[in-house]
């Protein structure tokens, strides 16, 4: 996965490791939608739609094969 240099500190979405300013990281698209709602209430239409968000991941999680080779 292509990485870029962090301009501010982040937390890795997958392993929760700190990504410091200046380190390499990538952005991974994750699905956050389809919430669970009790069937007693009327369910709004937006609750069934998927919501995607680009979350930061560290270089080790973004490129695991590079870590194995080193």
What does this structure look like?
This protein has 2 helices and 5 strands; from the N terminus they run E-E-E-E-E-H-H. With about 70 residues, it is α+β, with helices and mostly antiparallel strands. The protein has one domain (about 5-35, about 45-60). The strands form 2 sheets. It has a 3-stranded antiparallel β-sheet with strand order 1-4-5. The protein has a two-stranded antiparallel sheet with strand order 2-3. Strand 2 (about 10) and strand 3 form a beta hairpin. It is elongated, with a radius of gyration of 17 Å. The model has no long low-confidence stretch (mean pLDDT about 85).
Secondary structure elements and their pairing?
Elements: E1 4-5, E2 10-11, E3 18-19, E4 24-31, E5 52-58, H1 59-62, H2 64-69
Antiparallel strand pairs: 1-4, 2-3, 4-5
| Total number of beta strands | 5
Radius of gyration: 17 Å
Residues in helix, %: 10-25%
* SSE order: EEEEEHH
Give unreliable regions as ranges: none
Biggest pleated-sheet summary: 3 strands, antiparallel
Mean pLDDT: 84
Q: Provide the β-strand percentage band.
A: 25-35%
Given the structure, what is the number of helices? 2
Q: Biggest sheet, strands in spatial order?
A: 1-4-5
């Amino acid at each position: 996965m292509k990485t870029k240099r962090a301009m501010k500190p982040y937390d890795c979405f997958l392993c929760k490791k700190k990504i410091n300013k200046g380190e390499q990281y990538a952005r991974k698209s994750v699905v956050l939608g389809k919430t669970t709602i009790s069937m007693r209430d009327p369910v709004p239409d937006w609750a069934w739609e998927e919501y995607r968000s680009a979350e930061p991941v560290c270089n080790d999680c973004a490129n695991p094969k590079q870590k194995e080779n080193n």
